[in-house]
Amino acid sequence: MIKFGHIEYLFLLGLIPVLVLFIFLFRKWQRKTSLKFTTENLQNNLYLRKSDVREKWKYTLQILAVLFLILGLSNPQIGTNLKEVKRDGIEMVIALDLSNSMLCEDIKPNRLLRSKQAISELIDNLEGDRIGLVVFAGKAYTQLPITSDYSAAKMFLNTINTKTIETQGTNLSEAIRQSVKSFDFENKYNKSIIIITDGEDHEKGALIEAKLAAEKGVFMHTLSVGDTNGGPIPLTKSKGYKKDRAGNIIVTKPNFSFLDTLSIYGNGRHINANDSEFGLQQLFKEIREIEKKEISTMKFTDYSDRFQSFLFVSLFLFLLELSILNIKNNPIKKWIKR
Questions:
Q1: Which of 87, 236, 252, 327 is most buried, most CB within 10 Å of its CB?
Q2: Which helix (H) or strand (E) holds 13?
Q3: What are the C-alpha distances in Å from 107 to residues 177, 259, 278?
């Protein structure tokens, strides 16, 4: 079993494609610029000595060195001992609304970012519980299956935004249905769904799905996001706000009444999030009141660090890259022949 001591550094892997693109553009710019300051004959003579193969190898080694450096910084750890761990807890699924109305800034910095902050704080306060993550807009998807790996939960949480789901809307019925699918009802653990949304449901059937979930023993809480007065929806691709066909700015308001009714059908409670506490303390209280049962999982313990190997390989690749000259008459090669 492998885990990462500093999993947040893995986001730096996104720099690798950027580095590859930069090298490609740099080589193109370098060749074009050199023609401005030399004659074509001199340019041809220079390139006769230059080895394109070695130059490509140098850039490849640089990219690989950066790759291993990032992996080393993330500190891969290998579990050496597998044992059964028993903890008291519940299974919960957090369903997060990713519709464009969640970009409204009536709660700072906006509804979605504040919701993600709240979920992150919730994860930090869990002890022994297992957690899953469902995202929804016009459709619903399981972003993270139920797990006891809180680091993985926070990593997946950081990656989501309103572009994660192309189909817009607020399909609460599908969100509830997808959340229920995440549970294994053959085990005896109590289960809870926490829906974080502004409640602007554009689909029918949410109340029916909430009732069906409650009949299966699932406690469903709703956390409404947004100010009573609401606010405009910022456009993602340009400045300004979303407008209707008549050219009027659309104002999105949270549907407190509907979410309150939805939580009643789901045998749970509706909590109104605000800009100060965001309803977290009330939410923690509701979770603690759910009877917790012993959860038994197989878990690796006694992890050993492996960052040293990756950093060593990275250093070796950097030194190897420096030792290679991008000209055909490589002095190193001549020295070897001697």
A1: 252
A2: none
A3: 28, 18, 9
Check if the beta carbon of residue 135 is closer than 8 Å to that of residue 168.
Answer: no
Residue entry with tokens 């085990």: 187
Answer whether 0.70 is exceeded by the pTM: no
Please give the pLDDT value at position 11.
Answer: 84
The pLDDT assigned to 93 comes to: 94
Residues 101 and 236 in one domain: yes
**Residues 168 and 98 occupy one common structural domain:** yes
Rounded to 10 degrees, the C-alpha dihedral 43/47/52/56 comes to -50
Range of the domain at 36: 2-75+306-337
Q: pLDDT of 171-220, one tens digit each?
A: 899 999 999 999 988 877 788 999 999 877 656 789 999 999 999 989 99
Residue ranges of the chain with per-residue pLDDT less than 50: 331-338
Task: Look at residue 94 and tell me if it is in a domain.
Answer: yes
Q: Are 319 and 93 in contact (CB under 8 A)?
A: no
- Domain of 160, CATH number, reads 3.40.50.410
Q: Provide the pairing of β-strand 2-4 with 76-89.
A: antiparallel
**Do 285 and 192 lie in a common domain?**
yes
Between strands 140-147 and 130-136, the pairing is antiparallel
Contact 254, 156 (CB under 8 A): no
* Residues 133, 147: Cα–Cα separation, whole Å: 9
Bridging pattern class, strands 251-252 and 231-232: antiparallel
Query: Please, what is the Cα angle at 225 between 280 and 216, to 5 degrees?
Result: 70
DSSP-assigned letter for residue 220? E
Phi, psi (rounded to 5 degrees) for 166: -75, -40
Burial of 315 (0-12, 13-18, 19+ CB in 10 A): middle
What pLDDT sits at residue 201? 63
Q: Which of 149, 207, 220 is nearest to 180 (CA)?
A: 220
Task: Write down the pLDDT at residue 178.
Answer: 95
Q: Does residue 50 belong to any structural domain of this protein?
A: yes
Same-domain status, 209 and 277: yes
Are residue 35 and residue 168 in the same domain, yes or no?
no
What is the rounded CA–CA span in Å between residue 202 and residue 218?
Answer: 24
